[in-house]
Amino acid sequence: MKTRGGSSRAAGDLADPTDGGLPPDRTPAILEAAKEVASLLKGGGHPFALAGGVAVYAHGGPGTLQHDVDFCVLPEDIGAVTATLEAAGLEVVEPPEDWLLKTRSQGQEVDLIFRPARVPVTRELLDRAEVLSVESVWMPVLAVTDLLVGRLLAFSEHYCDFGAVLPIARTLREKIDWARVRRECGAEPMPAAFLYLLERLNVIEPEETGDGDRT
Question: pLDDT (tens digit, 9 = 90+) per residue, 18-47?
Fold first, then answer.
């Protein structure tokens, strides 16, 4: 199948000067990649869950995709997952990072993550996933609370992009267990600052103590 990831573009794909030179919408190709790899993982009987921006999209979050596809898989299944994908003709490579593997589908990068935010993927994490339809293909998708917790725990003094996470918190706030987010992230300075920002923006209610005072 011809992909959209080539170095040359047809005349119709060139940036329109009236749209500020924005890149072409990669959403359809990214979704096709998610569907193909998910179908292979399902066919191989491997526990997994869709993660990252495509998972946010599947839950009804911000709808333009410009990055890769992420799946969470169990560390002990890496060998079997690799064998399944390679048997289907997908090349699996091991990057310098020691927490994921990479492949490509439909011209798009696909990350197979087994240790996000310094903590290995567990069956409990995958069991909390919600089965959703992604462009008519049903697949397990990480729970919204787990998606947000993972993003907040990735914050550090060197990377702290509140702007990338704020639309997710706004759009999906009713599906998020904020008490659990506070328990798992609130002791870290960067996530705590983000939660305070959400309070000031009236996205979430301030945390209260038993006597009604804010902590």
Answer: 455 556 778 889 999 999 999 999 999 999
Q: How do residues 116-168 score in pLDDT, each as one tens digit?
A: 877 899 999 999 999 999 999 999 999 999 999 999 998 888 888 898 899 99
Q: What angle do CA 14, 15, 18 make, to 5 degrees?
A: 135
List, in sequence order, every residue forming a beta bridge with 49; answer none if it has no partner.
72
Assess whether pLDDT exceeds 70 at residue 200. Answer: yes
Q: Please say whether the beta carbons of 70 and 54 come within 8 A.
A: yes
138 beta partners: 133
Tokens standing for residue 10:
């047809």
Distance CA 118, CA 32 (A): 29
Q: How many CB atoms lie within 10 A of CB 102?
A: 16
Burial class (CB in 10 A: 0-12, 13-18, 19+), 163: exposed
∠ CA 89-95-98, rounded to 5°: 120
Straight-line distance from the first to the last Cα atom of the chain, in angstroms, rounded to the nearest whole number? 56
